[in-house]
Amino acid sequence: MKLFESELKVINIGLESFRQGLNDTGVKNVQVQFKPPLSQEAALFAKAAKFSARIEKANAKAMEKILAAKPALVGMGIALDVIPGMKKNLILHAGPPVKWPRMCGPMRGGIMAALMYEGLAKDPLEAEALAASGKIKYEPCHEHNAVGPMAGIISASMPVFIVKNEEHGNYAYATQNEGLGKVLRYGAYSPEVIERLRWMEKVLYPTLKDAIEFLGRIDLKSMVAQALHMGDEVHNRNRAGTSLFYRAIAPAVINTSRDPGTAAKVLEFINGNDHFFLNLSMALSKASLDAGRDVKDSSVAVVMARNGTEFGVQLSGTGGKWFTGPAPVPDALYFPGYTKADANPDIGDSAITETNGLGGFAIAAAPAIVQFVGGKAADALNYTLAMYEITAGESNIYKIPALDFRGTPTGIDVIKVAKSGILPFIDTGVAHKNAGVGQVGAGVLSAPPEPFAKAFEYFAKNLK
Amino acid sequence: MKLFESELKVINIGLESFRQGLNDTGVKNVQVQFKPPLSQEAALFAKAAKFSARIEKANAKAMEKILAAKPALVGMGIALDVIPGMKKNLILHAGPPVKWPRMCGPMRGGIMAALMYEGLAKDPLEAEALAASGKIKYEPCHEHNAVGPMAGIISASMPVFIVKNEEHGNYAYATQNEGLGKVLRYGAYSPEVIERLRWMEKVLYPTLKDAIEFLGRIDLKSMVAQALHMGDEVHNRNRAGTSLFYRAIAPAVINTSRDPGTAAKVLEFINGNDHFFLNLSMALSKASLDAGRDVKDSSVAVVMARNGTEFGVQLSGTGGKWFTGPAPVPDALYFPGYTKADANPDIGDSAITETNGLGGFAIAAAPAIVQFVGGKAADALNYTLAMYEITAGESNIYKIPALDFRGTPTGIDVIKVAKSGILPFIDTGVAHKNAGVGQVGAGVLSAPPEPFAKAFEYFAKNLK
User: Fold this and answer.
1) Are A402 and B377 a contacting pair at CB < 8 A?
2) Which residues of chain A have a CB within 8 Å of the CB of B385?
3) Helical axes B278-290 vs B239-256, angle rounded to 10°
């Protein structure tokens, strides 16, 4: 009977909604954060524990390579000429493999835009028919050393940046960012979209190509390091990265462009688009993470990518195998006139930035992003702090001022994710679910559990 | 006797050094921050309290004007042509009035550089003799609607930015920033210093002047607001401000410059100097604060400025009167080979940024600055939070991400300073104490008490 006479002191473990009644009636209570593990296969956790020394050594090796990467922008070229395995009838897309019938609206819209841009279709109807005909092949950007934001469409004639990892010699490729509004990567395919792509090919590309050749190389790694000190996490916020790139490229553009009018227009285009740097931060991340691939027994993720239907993960220790599950719909700030009901599930290769310790993992450097979805500066710190729980290391270069210049949490360890139930935190743009509309918002989300559970189980089963 | 039997619990008020013995012997204690008021004249505090309603109304009026200011860069010109009261034999300097015999080394060095630049002396010896001859007149920049960093020297032929407060119609002027190393504003006068000044007059100035005319105006207020979201406090850190200015001006420079080579050199000069924006943030602050001048009964500071010998303050309610005291030597990160013994006392008009709620008052936006003098990110937050104790308002435009976008503490109320003993926190560069050397470090400091005590006493005595 003593229990009911004395003051009640409650410890609530896990689901916070159970606290509400206690809070409402003024009963003292303490919340213990707890999430169940992602996998129910206890034997696999035991097996991973048994192999832990070997896994840790493998992860250290993968991390050393990822952190030592020296990604620099060294040139530009046309996709068909420079991307390994690129073909005229091949279209690269974001995320894990997906064929036309299962593709989401914005990816279909992006492909239709690309087919019209390539001159293979004269209008949307023709483009849709061709896209579904079987004459066009589809493969993930990630399987061609490339990355693309949102729909992530790369077709044969598109110009791409060439990023070289100068430490390990591998390359990564990404298109030029189109800006906001009606753009291919969000699934729009109206004439203005195609026209802009042509201008980007005929004017923007040759101008930037010459300027980059004039400079020889642009050190992207130090640029990202500085951008993190300037309020960017280089995924949803790229104002500083774009500014620093602009400062580096402008004098070279003037020195090499065919006429001052062209130089001014090219710089105005970049100045008008604070996301211009995104594609470069993605290529930098891709070039860094590819160096950490194929380390036997490493449980570190080297890819997180979404095709708008599924969310896919690849691990260093499991080669080219994709682990997938349904892509969730982000919490977002929606543009006027749109709601979550309009939103396509999460899409794009841009989660390569989080995989590389940037984006949502570095959100403590960019509290402005949390604020626009209703959060506080302290939430931004907490999101980043939580990511240290599931990462194998910390960046030696990318550092967060508000955390006393601690390195960003880097190298997602799928065992830690599976054990803790803490899922990677991702910043993202939001596309309308229908082809032809475009962007409807920007927000944040946690990665879905299924790909990580599958990746962990496959990884642990195959340890021997 | 009971006191000595029970556990000792100590409250320590004021000087923290008294706690050391308690801490060393493990005695529980609590520290209460307390500083004695700056003025011992209790009757004056009582008088200020009696007039408090009227003072508050006056301060609200001054704050409304300061916060409503709309400073924009609208043009450039030669000092003699555009600065009110400028003359050929007049040299403007930083801080409160000071004549040659009492001037510090770096101010003397800057004046010698200016006399050689003007062609009035052919070498340092001749310049020094002329400077001391009585033929050259000296007046504060602040008395000519102008501001200058460090020595703050403006001579007749120097080009200046013209910043207009578009809300109230007043103007402010500042020179172009020379960059780091051996530069006039830190008291250097070697041939490379004079040569750079000539290039700035013959190439940089006409190029920027044409570009600004082409654009019509550049909105400095929104640029500073953005820079605070990008790790700047626009006093000791201007990387973001410089980047944003560069992005705005570059296409105009290309469109208007006489040839691409000149355009490229001008942009490379700005790109090579992350402090280029400082002089603009100072002129923006001056244009804003001058709008708040001469409000009867207002105890809000409209100037804090140092000439390297004395630190001076002006209040809205006390007209052009200067309140001064000895300038302190900053805590700083010294460049290799230099120590605090080499440092000149605090110098420059750049504390106009703090007076305007920026710089040290906004240091929570720029933790990198605190780190280089050995502090933590939390210290940066605390410095800014302390400034809310002594300010009359908060900015409606300049906001700090890490404080959930709270407006910066703005408008130093000298009564609050005198009562609390909390002194304005200032970021600063450090000049060598001898003429001809240049910068030896960068750091932070609290303003000295004397000018604020004097300002408060004069203000309170004259209330009627």
Assistant:
1) yes
2) none
3) 100
> CB A263 to CB B267 under 8 A?
no
The pLDDT score that the predictor gives to residue B1 is 61
Q: Of A229, A251, A283, which one is at a domain's C-terminal end?
A: A283
Residues of B in contact with A404 (CB under 8 A): 367, 371, 376-377
* One domain, residues A310 and A271: no
| Same domain, yes or no: A174 and A48 | no
Are A181 and A253 in the same domain?
A: yes
Measured CA to CA, the distance from residue B295 to residue B315 in angstroms comes to: 9
- The tally of domains found in chain B comes to 3
Q: What is the pTM of this model?
A: 0.91
- Which CATH number does the domain housing residue A359 bear? 3.90.1700.10
pLDDT in tens, A47-103: 999 999 999 999 999 999 999 999 999 999 999 999 999 999 999 999 999 999 999
A258: containing domain: 66-283
Instruction: Report which of A116, A114, A103 is spatially closest to residue A175, judged by C-alpha positions.
Output: A114
Instruction: Test B377 with A251 for CB contact under 8 angstroms.
Output: no
| Partner-chain contact B367 A240, CB within 8 Å | no
Chosen from B254, B258, B259, B404 to mutate, greatest number of chain A CBs within 10 A: B254
Which residues of chain B have a CB within 8 Å of the CB of A271? 247-248, 250-251
Residues A245-277 as b/e (b if ≥16 CB within 10 A, e otherwise) read bbbbbbbbbbbbbeebebbbbbbbbbbebbbbb
B278 alpha carbon, distance to own chain's centre = 9
Quick count: other Cβ atoms within 10 Å of Cβ B198?
11
Residue B37 lies in a domain: no
Calpha distance A247→B264 (Å, rounded): 11
Instruction: Fill in the amino acid letter for B107.
Output: M
Asked if residue A288 belongs to a domain, the reply is: no
Q: How far is residue A231 from each of residues A151, A370, B229, B367, measured CA to CA in Å?
A: 26, 12, 6, 12
Same domain, residue pair B446 and B391: yes
Q: Rounded to an integer, what distance in angstroms lies between the CA atom of residue B254 and that of residue A250?
A: 10
Say whether both A419 and A330 belong to one domain.
yes
> Taking 80 as the threshold, does the pLDDT of residue A14 lie above it?
no
Chain B nearest CA to A377, separation (Å): 5
Query: 3-class SS at A96?
Result: coil
Closest B-chain CA to A375:
B404
The minimum CA-CA distance between A240 and chain B, rounded to whole Å, is 7
Q: What is the CATH number of the domain that holds A260?
A: 3.90.1710.10
CA closest to A381 among chain B residues: B402
Nearest neighbour of B260 by CB, restricted to A246, A254, A402:
A254
Query: Are residues B296 and B256 part of one domain?
Result: no
Which residue among A239, A265, A283 closes a domain?
A283
**Residue A37 belongs to some domain of the structure:** no
C-alpha distance from residue A103 to each of A129, A416, A456 (Å):
14, 31, 26
Q: What is the chain B residue with the closest CA to A233?
A: B230
Q: Between residues B25 and B323, which one has the greater pLDDT?
A: B323
Indicate whether B322 and B378 sit together in one domain. Answer: yes
In this complex, do A251 and B229 lie within 8 Å of one another by their Cβ atoms? no
- Shared domain check, A388 and A304: yes
Give the nearest partner residue to B247 out of A243, A251, A367, using CB atoms: A243
Per the CB < 8 Å rule, is A367 touching B250? no
Confidence of residue A1 (pLDDT cuts 50, 70, 90): low
Q: Considering CB atoms only, which of A230, A251, A371 is closest to B267?
A: A251
Q: B-chain residues within 8 Å CB-CB of A403? A: 377
Distance CA A242, CA A223 (A): 9
- Local structure of residue B291 (DSSP, 8 states): T
Are residues A402 and B240, on separate chains, in Cβ contact within 8 Å? no
